[in-house]
Amino acid sequence: MITKTVPSATDTVRLYRTLRYIRRVEEEIARIYPSDKIKSPVHLSIGQEAIAVGACDPLMSEDFVSASYRGHAAYLAKGGDLKKMMAELYGKKDGCAGGKAGSMHLIDMPNNVLGMSAVVGTTIPVAAGFALSLKRKAEGNVIVAFMGDGATEEGCFGETLNFSSLHKLPILFVCENNDYAIHTPSSKRWATDRLCERVATYGMPAVRIEDGDVLAIREAATRHIDNMRNGGGPAFLECATYRWREHVGPGEDYESGYRDRNELAAWIEKDQVPRLGGMLSTDEREAIDAEIESTITEAIAFAENSHFPDTNQLMAHVYAE
Amino acid sequence: MITKTVPSATDTVRLYRTLRYIRRVEEEIARIYPSDKIKSPVHLSIGQEAIAVGACDPLMSEDFVSASYRGHAAYLAKGGDLKKMMAELYGKKDGCAGGKAGSMHLIDMPNNVLGMSAVVGTTIPVAAGFALSLKRKAEGNVIVAFMGDGATEEGCFGETLNFSSLHKLPILFVCENNDYAIHTPSSKRWATDRLCERVATYGMPAVRIEDGDVLAIREAATRHIDNMRNGGGPAFLECATYRWREHVGPGEDYESGYRDRNELAAWIEKDQVPRLGGMLSTDEREAIDAEIESTITEAIAFAENSHFPDTNQLMAHVYAE
Amino acid sequence: MQNKSTHSDRSLAYVDALREGMEQEMADDPQVFVFGLDVDDHKAIQGSTKGLLERFGPERVFGTPLSEDAMTGVAIGAAMAGMRPIHVHIRMDFMMLAMNQLVNIGAKAHYMYGGQVKVPLVVRSMIGKSWGQGAQHSQGLHSLFMHIPGLKVVAPSNAYDAKGTMIAAIRDNNPVIFVEHRLLYYTEAPVPEESYVVELGKGRVCREGDDITIVGISNMLMEALRAQEILQDAKVSAEVVDPITLHPMDIDTICESIEKTGRLLIVDNAWTRCGASAEIAAQVAERFGGQRAIPIKRMGFADTPCPTTPALEDVFYANPVTIAKAAHTMVHPEDDGWTPNPEKATLSYQSQFKGPF
Amino acid sequence: MQNKSTHSDRSLAYVDALREGMEQEMADDPQVFVFGLDVDDHKAIQGSTKGLLERFGPERVFGTPLSEDAMTGVAIGAAMAGMRPIHVHIRMDFMMLAMNQLVNIGAKAHYMYGGQVKVPLVVRSMIGKSWGQGAQHSQGLHSLFMHIPGLKVVAPSNAYDAKGTMIAAIRDNNPVIFVEHRLLYYTEAPVPEESYVVELGKGRVCREGDDITIVGISNMLMEALRAQEILQDAKVSAEVVDPITLHPMDIDTICESIEKTGRLLIVDNAWTRCGASAEIAAQVAERFGGQRAIPIKRMGFADTPCPTTPALEDVFYANPVTIAKAAHTMVHPEDDGWTPNPEKATLSYQSQFKGPF
Ligand SMILES: Cc1ncc(C[n+]2csc(CCOP(=O)(O)OP(=O)(O)O)c2C)c(N)n1
Ligand SMILES: Cc1ncc(C[n+]2csc(CCOP(=O)(O)OP(=O)(O)O)c2C)c(N)n1
Ligand SMILES: [Mg+2]
Ligand SMILES: [Mg+2]
Asked: Which of A81, B23, B212, C1 has its CA 20 to 30 A from that of C183?
């Protein structure tokens, strides 16, 4: 079911631009990947962009996001610097972490993107700690914490929900439920699919959105975020989605047997990039697309032209002054 | 609300005996404690006995229990050896672990009492591992896993529920909810009190019993255990109760300010020891009481007469052959 | 605020010194907060957080659910956001639940994120001993943290250092594992009232001597001092060194002492294998290895879990007599049957030393 | 079933040797089962569990939820109940979530419960390297486990030992931490088809030499062998020792080698501070300390988290050239500018050795 909400024209432009931008960045990453210029494993969000875009749309620049190793979409949706991201993927010194992070640990603190982590679930309580500081500052800011469905199986997930609700922290938990942890479907990992019901027992609103509709996600996120800006405490969104590519790497993996290409077909129909694009005039869309392409081209050039860090950087930043 | 179930005469005798036995053993421990003959911290279950007694009553000798450091009641309710327990508390070589365990790590494998742990929550998944082996054996045996309310806050609790339900393990989780973790009430630790509701989302029956009624606990335990003997999978009981004594040690602590003696008063009224005792004739009761006293006297004498282990035992049992 | 004079007319217990250090930093810096299981109850972590709730309120002093893993993550996140959390564990054993956050995030964040964040976090934990603490309430696991670059580890042995390193740890912009020992809580030392820093990474020679260097860690420093007294009887002059910080370790002070004594005995309140004592021994061996043969010996927990019964616990730990005997044997290998006068030994067990030594 | 002849006409990859060892034990003993994240998917932990599901079925080969803490408890409970679980982690870094169960229960149960239970558990984990693994997918954390009495730790460097120690670990009645290295997975060695045991706690001299003893751990043994070839060029004769098991450690074999060479270089695939290399250095220092001055040096990870970019990762690890140079300097301190012929060095990097060496 595609939501009935009609977005304003500027909303549509903005949402389309971000959706398309993320899609194209990751398609470019996939294209470049076989050249070995990208120096770390990449976990692509292609097909899942609507969640990051919808959930980040209500955010102000003073708000924060946190995400997992599958974090390109959240990074870009929150306004993370693409040049620094690409240089980081290339392992270059102008990368957001000077080459020490790679794709799995992206960070952009000037744009309020917290550092990502390759250990599943670990960023969830860290985001809550950030939320605690936002609550103390009492300036109405919030954090959106993205996680996969697998991450909800880690003990720290429930621990964090309890603590966040107890302290009414301004944190929106967003589960990107693509039904797989690597190659294992949730039916083999979850005793039941009553996740939202479980989360609600911690005393926070918990909503599942089935169809990946960027407008529905945005609407739900907006409602909860507005509420928590006024002290309303945490909330939880479970967004069904689908990972189009393999778990890690640039390719597809439908031939490997653990899932069927039909699953993909159903989700391609719901793809939000053409859907939002369809709401724009051809001229508008082409202008946006062209702008995106040049942004990406520039970022890739930036990454290519940046240098690898000097070996003396190995010892830098082990301890903070 | 005291349940209407009328137990049979033999049931009443058996339940009374076990309740009274555990109560008296712990009262004796409290009496001896100031003499410093007991060589480890003791966490008494006085006031909470009905849970262990009710939940263990349906067990066969081939079934198992696991418990926390507050485990005397579970140990004794399952038929653990009192002499070995007392000698263990005394740090003697005839103790169940030759003096290496003390009160917090009691074990009696010949009587199917698993080893206890002083790290909150750790025995919960260990019990599930045991349950996995019982499922593989497929002889209809079960394990009852006791835990405090605080233990349900540890991540491993939710992780274990999910795994146990996914694999339909024969395990009855029993939460002894005395509303405190050391001196902190659950209102300061739990975002909500919707524990059973949460557990139920893992796909297992979850029932809260409010009044510490040993017959109601026994009835619920029996129903679930019977079900899991036939492949029905795990279940959860939350039993409200009250710790009469201090968290650790033999005394009371109502003067320390964190709780009110009125709380105790309400629970003394519900005390199951006199309740069950009142269902017996005076003669019957006195005979049981006398038998209990002599069992305890014997066990204490056993502990007193046992020797401390030789220092060469220090190096024994670090590795199994 | 650098190392002030260690003189003070006021004698203070270790537990109160810890509290005072935290209190002064909390008064100075509103970003400092204290949390963890039971920090806000009437027992106040054996008294070490007493009064903080009353003074600073429940936003800055609060208990938590039993959720060590997530609470560590919360502490790390709050620290990245510019706060300065002090996360308290009443036993070091429970920190095993916090390993993932400490090792995989806390220790690495500053580096892995290219310096974009700092993690100014103090993790306090107490090592238990006696009263039947047993295998799960007695572990000194500091070496696990020493192993991980990005963490600092400090283990003060006396009230003076407890306050000064606590203040240093709170001001440090890195995660600092703060190792306390329950048996030290009621030992006293002269402790200045004003705020002062004992710099992390500097050790101290507590007793000068010529024949052997004894390094004592945490409360084993206390036992080493007792052993030193016993050894005087046998005309063995031991130099006793307190590393104070375990990482970064002040190996120079230890090696200078060895230059003089030519022998090294390390006594830890932990297992020796891959322990702090192994690290010190290895560094000393690397330094002197080519040039001079240094007799080296480590003592620590017996190579077993800790038993509950005192009959076995007594032989689980090093003590003044076993330390003195080991040192004596190292100095006089020809006479390794030496045993201290039992009366003297008993007396020495009761010796109380007023730090900072 | 004791150490069989190491000769075999069949060459097998490390990954297949692991799998074969597990498979043979599973066939022999119905209590053995394998579980952990992704053991049952088509990638089968880089191939190391391939075919086991098909042969033994989903009751004995199954994936789990992402719940390392509880799954470790489940493994320990099942082991106490008489089963023999093999719990698999695709990266050692994730074992930080399993520390509480391993340290506080698994390692202590047999002792703390007075011998009433045993914990015959194998915990497999892989150390990652290269391809941008970065700080959280590259750690060799074996020393954390070596520190804890009650655990055993083994780190085979080649296919022959991989199979033999796997079988030994499964048959062992204690928790064994089984350390694998991703870069070793496709290295080959002659591996007998029949079941055999490589006894835990016995090391092996892989190359004989006179000038220096090089101990290599896990895949650093491979690098040490390459360094040994480079050193031949400079007429330095290195003896290379593989400890195989890290705890219990075969220190006698190492010390016998040092008796001959008089020098020790330890190269670990881990940090050195409080590491396996510290332990070896400390034990050697304790043994020789009084009598003979032994030059000792440790090499391992740089004292930093692991960076992602190859530009920095290259200098994070020891490699044949840095090992050879360090060894050369120890043997010829007067000539510490020596550098191997770059061509020769490049060639040596490509050397493949067929274990068991
Ligand atoms: C603690 C931990 N356990 C296991 C892994 C290996 N692993 C990497 S990604 C992944 C699946 C995570 O699934 P999910 O949370 O659903 O995220 P998705 O990849 O689907 O976005 C696993 C098991 C890990 N990185 N961290
Ligand atoms: C992992 C861990 N954290 C903290 C402690 C300290 N501690 C001991 S008992 C306890 C309270 C446990 O409360 P609950 O589970 O309700 O059990 P109860 O004592 O009420 O029976 C705490 C926090 C511990 N032993 N283990
Ligand atoms: Mg997923
Ligand atoms: Mg309780």
From this structure: C1
Integer-rounded Cα radius of gyration of chain A: 19
Closest-lying ligand to the alpha carbon of B151? 2
Distances (CA, A) of C192 to B194, C11, C25, C187, C189: 50, 9, 15, 16, 10
Residue corresponding to tokens 């290259």: D314
Report helix, strand or coil for B45: coil
**Pairwise CA distance, residues A321 & B268, whole Å:** 59
What separation, in Å, do the N-terminal and C-terminal C-alpha atoms of chain D show? Answer: 21
Please state which CATH number belongs to domain B9-243+250-306.
3.40.50.970
Residues with CB under 6 A from ligand 2: B 70, 118-120, 148-151, 176, 178, 180-182, 247; C 37, 66, 68, 90, 94, 97
In tens digits, chain D (357 residues) has pLDDT values of 334 455 688 999 999 999 999 999 999 999 999 999 999 999 999 999 999 999 999 999 999 999 999 999 999 999 999 999 999 999 999 999 999 999 999 999 999 999 999 999 999 999 999 989 999 999 999 999 999 999 999 999 999 999 999 999 999 999 999 999 999 999 999 999 999 999 999 999 999 999 999 999 999 999 999 999 999 999 999 999 999 999 999 999 999 999 999 999 999 999 999 999 999 999 999 999 889 999 999 999 999 999 999 999 999 999 999 999 999 999 999 988 899 988 888 887 777 776 666
Contact between D138 and C104 (Cβ < 8 Å): no
* Known catalytic membership, residue C259: no
Please answer whether residues A121 and D69 qualify as being in contact, where contact means their C-beta atoms are separated by less than 8 angstroms: no
Interface test with A, best of B122, B168, B201, B204 (most A CBs within 10 A): B201
The residue ranges of every structural domain in chain A are 9-243+250-306
d(CA B166, CA B161): 8
Tell me how far apart the alpha carbons of residues B194 and A7 are, in angstroms, rounded to a whole number: 38
Nearest neighbour of D304 by CB, restricted to A155, A189, A315: A315
What lines the ligand 1 site, CB under 6 Å?
Answer: A 70, 118-120, 148-151, 176, 178, 180-182, 247; D 37, 66, 68, 90, 94, 97
Q: What are A254's two structure tokens?
A: 């439908």
Report yes or no: D301 and D316 within 8 Å, Cβ to Cβ. Answer: yes
List, in order, residues 6 or more apart from D162 with CB less than 8 Å away: D14, D17, D18, D21, D156, D180, D184
**D44 vs D15: CA distance, rounded Å:** 11
D135 to A105: CB separation less than 8 angstroms, yes or no:
yes
Beta bridge partners of A8: none
CA-nearest residue to C294 within chain D is D289
Looking at residue D211, its amino acid is D
Helix (H, G, I), strand (E, B), or coil: what is residue D61?
strand
For residue C205, the surrounding DSSP H or E stretch is strand C204-207
Please tell me the pTM assigned to this model. Answer: 0.98
Complex confidence, ipTM: 0.98
B233 φ/ψ sector (left φ>0, alpha ψ -120 to 50, else beta): left
State the Cα–Cα distance between residues A69 and A120, nearest whole angstrom.
8
Structural tokens at position D141: 């954390």
Which residues in chain A have Cβ-Cβ distances shorter than 8 Å to C59? 136
Phi, psi of D212 (to 5 degrees): -160, 145
- Domains of chain C and CATH, by start: 11-190 (3.40.50.970), 204-348 (3.40.50.920)
- Chain D partners (3+ C-beta pairs within 8 A): A, B, C
| Residue B27 near residue B46 (C-beta atoms within 8 A) | yes
H-only helix segments in chain C: 14-28, 52-56, 68-80, 99, 109-112, 142-146, 159-171, 219-233, 251-261, 276-288, 310-316, 320-331, 342-350
Q: Which chains touch B (3 or more CB pairs under 8 A)?
A: A, C, D
